[in-house]
Amino acid sequence: MPPKHLPEGFNDQVMSLVKTMQSEVPDCVAAGVVDMATGMLLAYETVESHPREVLDLLAGATLDLFQGRTVLMIEDVFKERRGVESDQHYFQEVLVNSDHVTHLFVRMTARQDVVAVAVCRKSVNVGMLFAQARRVVRQHAGI
């Protein structure tokens, strides 16, 4: 059951987003959706099995990347200096490279507290990763 702040049918939309990311983003080995309002990993698909603790840490790391205290302070400074009065977050995408994989975190447009995550092989063409992930996120803009 989705948290109370999520609309009816949200779970189906989230699962559709995850499945589409997994199948259409190049070299994708895992995909997921994180609800930053609760810090929960709402759904995920992966080609390998991972301990639940690792998946839960991914949700926490996503929260830190987008809404950690320092990140929010940076966003506030940028908004103030640029005269932006919107509640929309300044950072919309984050790319993280590790030794073996590339992670792309994309904030949903309509629901700023929801982030889609694609984990790809390190050999991924980063331009194609961004293009396909953005296309999939736009397709699921209703989330």
Task: Provide a brief overview of the structure.
The chain has helices spanning 10-24, 52-67, 69-82, 126-139; strands at residues 28-35, 40-46, 93-97, 101-107, 114-121.
Report what the structure shows:
With 143 residues, this protein is an alpha+beta fold. It has a single domain, classed as Beta-Lactamase, CATH 3.30.450. It is built from four helices and five strands; from the N terminus they run H-E-E-H-H-E-E-E-H. The chain has helices spanning 10-24, 52-67, 69-82, 126-139; strands at 28-35, 40-46, 93-97, 101-107, 114-121. The chain has a five-stranded antiparallel beta sheet with strand order 2-1-5-4-3, with helices on both faces. The mean pLDDT is 90.
* Mean pLDDT over the residues: 90
State the distance separating the first and last CA atoms: 16 Å
Instruction: Please report the first level of CATH classification, the CATH class.
Output: Alpha Beta
Task: Give me the secondary-structure category.
Answer: alpha+beta
Q: CATH superfamily membership, which one? A: Dynein light chain 2a, cytoplasmic
| Rg over CA atoms | 15 Å
Fold-level CATH name: Beta-Lactamase
Give the neighbour order of strands across the main sheet. 2-1-5-4-3
Structural domain count: 1
Q: Let me know the number of strands.
A: 5
Spans of at least 5 consecutive residues whose pLDDT stays below 50 are: none
Percent of sequence in beta strands: 15-25%
What is the oligomeric state here? single chain
CATH architecture group name? 2-Layer Sandwich
Largest sheet properties? 5 strands, antiparallel
Organism: Actinomadura gamaensis
Protein name: Roadblock/LAMTOR2 domain-containing protein
